[in-house]
């Protein structure tokens, strides 16, 4: 699929496959399409994030709706008591506003996505399993608690600066070197072949032909035709292997390796000594290989062609990128800008501080709100008393006059308080 240049639409439940092949995921939920611009790992992270942000948004809206509903209810009560038509109208307009508000659906989470993701990687598909590898050469710390898991059919490019420990890791996996700490093992079904960075032959005095005949127990004719496939010309097969160039040695070793029934190929900088023709030839040989591949390379073209996962060694540890070289480059730029952990911690702290000040403001305005309501209640009680008194002394003009003046004063005061209360209700909500 990776080789195919056109557009493809794939329906699949194979997470591993999805992780490697797709760059866009469309999930059908409740008859709608949810689009994720990335592979499976991205989808999992993004889905969780979307869930959390939708939930936060939903909760915020619900809170605001509740506050507005309470405000409207309260105002209706006051309006009824004071027989205030304008106040009713205001309450109705708040209710209209609630109706018109954009409302987020309450998000639902299905299954347990996190556990699904965690089980990823520990199955019978394991080809190479390395945990906590440490390796020092003298004072130099080369590997420092490195973890490396390789699964069936992965094609892994191991990258890293010169001297970062790529060859050391490969040698520990193949048993050529020993780790100071940690474990490295291969799966039971693994049959591997290894092309080291520097190829040597057990018996350098043998000719090319003799070497192949001995290694593969072939007859001379078979060996010759095999060597021809690997671009060793008729007149070359009698050269002794000690006189071969680095590239020729690599080619000869590959020729022998590829005849064995292997399901894991480990190549340490295979293209380094190769000219363009030989590189192309190596590429076509690898294209026919259907097994798992681990290779160290600095050849970007080669990495892009064969690497579907990039494992970068840096500071003695591995950072995995589940994608091809292009994906890796993108992520690298991204992570450089982000400076990861530091930025995340800062953002969290800032968010926390913000929440705290909002909480404080909200609390203050809530107190004011309550005070105001108490004041309104007591003035309304006064008003009721005055109305009562006015009925009782309807004969006494002077008393009536002063009561009436008092009533107008209180009503004006109340009007102001209602206004204040309403403004406060609005700002109170806007803190959230
Ligand atoms: N046998 C050894 N003895 C001492 N130092 C070594 C040995 N092998 C590797 N090193 C050192 O370990 C570091 C990692 O080497 P290596 O794994 O070959 O790096 P890479 O393959 O990533 O270029 C280098 O600094 C190298 O000099
Ligand atoms: Mg190396």
Quick summary:
The chain is of the alpha/beta class and 432 residues long.
Task: Tell me what you see in this structure.
- With 432 residues, the protein is an alpha/beta fold.
- It folds into three domains: 15-118; 125-341, Rossmann fold, CATH 3.40.50; 386-432.
- The chain contains 13 helices and eleven strands.
- The protein has helices spanning 15-21, 40-82, 85-100, 113-119, 166-174, 208-216, 220-229, 246-257, 276-287, 300-306, 325-338, 340-392, 397-430, and strands at 25-29, 32-36, 126-137, 140-151, 155-159, 181-186, 192-195, 264-268, 292-296, 309-314, 317-321.
- A six-stranded mixed sheet has the order 7-8-9-5-10-11, sandwiched between helices. Strands 4-3-6 form a three-stranded antiparallel sheet, covered by helices on one side. Strands 1-2 form a two-stranded antiparallel sheet.
- β3 (126-137) and β4 form a beta hairpin.
- α2 runs antiparallel to α13.
- The longest helix has 53 residues, at 340-392.
- The chain is rod-shaped.
- Residues 111-123 have low confidence and may be disordered.
- Magnesium ion (MG) is lined by residues 166-167, 197, 268.
């Amino acid at each position: 699929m990776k080789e195919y240049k056109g557009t493809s639409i794939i329906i699949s439940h194979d997470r591993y496959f999805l992780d490697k092949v797709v760059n866009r995921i469309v999930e059908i939920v409740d008859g709608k399409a949810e689009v994720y611009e990335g592979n499976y790992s991205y989808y999992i992270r993004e889905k969780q994030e979307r869930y959390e942000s939708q939930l936060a948004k939903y909760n915020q809206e619900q809170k605001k709706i509740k506050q507005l509903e309470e405000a409207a209810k309260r105002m209706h009560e006051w309006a009824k008591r004071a027989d205030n038509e304008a106040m009713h109208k205001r309450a109705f307009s708040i209710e209209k506003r609630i109706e018109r508000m954009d409302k987020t659906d309450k998000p639902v989470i299905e299954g347990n996505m996190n556990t699904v993701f965690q089980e990823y990687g520990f199955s019978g598909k394991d080809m190479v399993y390395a945990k906590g590898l440490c390796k020092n050469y003298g004072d130099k710390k080369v590997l420092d608690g490195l973890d490396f898991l390789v699964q069936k059919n992965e094609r892994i490019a191991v990258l890293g600066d010169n001297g970062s420990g790529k060859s050391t890791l490969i040698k520990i996996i193949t048993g050529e070197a020993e780790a100071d700490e940690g474990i490295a093992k291969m799966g039971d079904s693994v049959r591997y072949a290894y092309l080291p960075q520097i190829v040597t032959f057990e018996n350098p005095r043998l000719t090319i032909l003799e070497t192949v005949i001995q290694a593969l127990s072939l007859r001379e004719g078979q060996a010759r035709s095999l060597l021809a496939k690997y671009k060793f010309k008729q007149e070359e097969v009698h050269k002794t292997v000690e006189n071969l160039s680095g590239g020729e040695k690599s080619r000869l070793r590959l020729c022998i390796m590829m005849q064995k029934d292997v399901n894991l190929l480990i190549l340490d900088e295979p293209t380094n000594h190769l000219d363009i023709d030989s590189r192309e030839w190596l590429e076509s040989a690898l294209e026919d290989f259907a097994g798992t591949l681990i290779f160290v390379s600095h050849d970007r073209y080669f990495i892009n062609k064969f690497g579907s996962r990039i494992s970068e060694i840096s500071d003695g540890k591995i950072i995995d990128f589940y994608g091809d070289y292009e994906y890796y480059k993108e992520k690298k730029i991204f992570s450089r800008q982000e400076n990861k952990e530091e930025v995340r911690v800062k953002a969290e702290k800032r968010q926390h501080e913000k929440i705290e000040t909002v909480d404080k403001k909200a609390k203050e305005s809530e107190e004011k709100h309550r005070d105001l309501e108490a004041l309104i209640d007591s003035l309304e009680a006064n008003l009721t008393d005055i109305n009562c008194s006015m009925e009782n002394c309807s004969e006494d003009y002077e008393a009536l006059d002063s009561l009436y003046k008092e009533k107008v004063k209180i009503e004006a005061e109340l009007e102001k308080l209602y206004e204040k209360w309403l403004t406060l209700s609005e700002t109170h909500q806007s803190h959230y």
